[in-house]
Amino acid sequence: MSPVRLKLQSASSSSSATCVAANFMLAPILLKFTFRTSVFTSVYRNIPARGSIPVAERRYMSHQPKRLCTEKMSGKRIGTHNGTFHCDEVLACFFLHQLPEYKDAEIVRTRDPAELAKCDIVVDVGGEFDPKKHLYDHHQRTFSETFHSLCPEKPWVTKLSSAGLVYLHFGRRVLSQLTSLKEGDRQLEVLYDKLYENLVEEVDAVDNGVSQYDGEARYAVSTTLSARVGHLNPRWNSKSQDTQEGFHKALGMVGAEFLDRVDFYQNSWLPARVVVEGAVQMRMQVDPSGEVVVFSQGGCPWKEHLFSLEKELSVDTSIKFVLYPDQNGQWRVQCVPAGLHTFNNRLSLLEEWRGVRDDALSELSGVPDCVFVHAGGFIGGNKTKEGALEMARRTLQAAAKSPSKHTNCA
To answer: What start-end ranges are recorded for coiled-coil regions in this protein (predicted)?
Structure first.
């Protein structure tokens, strides 16, 4: 950083000794404040104060390598391209900074092959993909790799960007560093899959121009992570086209979003999965049919986990009902939908019960303490757990006698 020069003047040419003394007293304070302000402007604390670089040097894009330095340099270098930045290489650089060997690595932003050759790892530039050499570019004409092509046991077929390439090769280690889960831990693998499917794959698709669907969109989605990173680039008509400050902001933004997702999936989503798995494993003790599960606590997000665990645990007979207590201490019986994105149920509560409440419903159903059955037939209530279970059992018995009448009703 260039020395900070302070030019202190009094209010008039005939300044008094008092003003001169005040200038000398203020100088250390102003110097300290200016230094702290320049440091605060960067997440990684390496953006020079604006006054330290002549405007003429910042006005146009430089072809010289741009370096992002951390406080403690490890000697390692991460290479990526300069100029306009995108979400994929920003996220890739963030991933690498979570690893011990790259924690304090310098980020060198350049397209100069000689400079890139000096880097320990290169992402999103260089025209080569070779994990053995730590080269992770995806722009070459011959590149068509997907998660599935590189890891056949994984289902995703979206073309990888530098974010996906780095995540595929280092993601488990990154998550292990952030969560303290050990590599090989089943929960870490579930987390690894979930974060690719719900964050990184989107970045891969946007960067590679892979449409989410065919046909015309009904409305625009302009607030994706990739879009927000793009907005941090200089505007086309800005006097300065320097991208360093925006790249810093993007690192902080994508890092914060990824860490927030990790926190949610580790501390909310995974515990819900544990609850659902326990309920699925105990289902035969709830009812011999194995088609009813019970959660001891309401509010647990269960649908996604239930569908996944049925496959993972090879559940032969699909689960039809979920029981759980509501906020009033009463019990709910909810139908399992036919899929995540449908209002059809595997088995709806009896049609003649729908829209009926309280004593009238108890008399009609023959089940004591009934509260309600929704007009759509997808949920009902009872004052007791036993009553809710009996409502599920009677619906199962009726379906066994006349399967076509009840299955897959809305």
So the answer is: none
